[in-house]
């Protein structure tokens, strides 16, 4: 029952595939730094190589890293962030798959979210309420605000300056209760609709949001634990393609 995080992707320089895993460890009965390991696909030695630990405790609800332009991005656990002393408040740590080094250069939209909240939210309120994704060729942060029952989607528009733009606010009419509840954006269709995975306790649903009519509808519903993983599968045949959504429990 110890949290674990995974990421799989290609390096920008050589196109080599690598698998990254981060596992919580116990040392003499006490929590130690998470163990970070890398496995290079095609490595003749076939072994995990230990790397430097992440620069902070990762959010347990962000179970996987999002790979964007050769680096895997994760959320820090905002519940443990104190702006008075924490060095990386608001940053999104990343692991470069080519250099195999950690970085805290990218600033997330956390400060913008808190500014817009006008004092109704703090860092602890963001715990288990943020989810990373890659949409429309860039990083996306989904923020579920249970105070107003809405999901805001923030898109990274300027990496160097850490600038994010809020492109969608999706109203939700259902209540979220219990650990593991959240919203994960999956894709934006060619028609501009947003497909979301919604987790409510032991129930999981695929929803589609139409920004033109500002309405949402359920596509499919299934029983799913809080450890359910969601991904996209795209089948290409000549000039035709099909996109499907698969879940793994």
From TrEMBL:
Superkingdom per UniProt: Eukaryota
Residue ranges constituting the F-box associated beta-propeller type domain according to the UniProt record: 14-219
InterPro entries membership: F-box-assoc_dom_typ3, F-box-assoc_interact_dom, Gal_Oxase/kelch_b-propeller
PANTHER family membership: BNAA05G37150D PROTEIN-RELATED, OS07G0196600 PROTEIN
The protein's name: F-box associated beta-propeller type 3 domain-containing protein
Species this protein is from: Oryza glumipatula
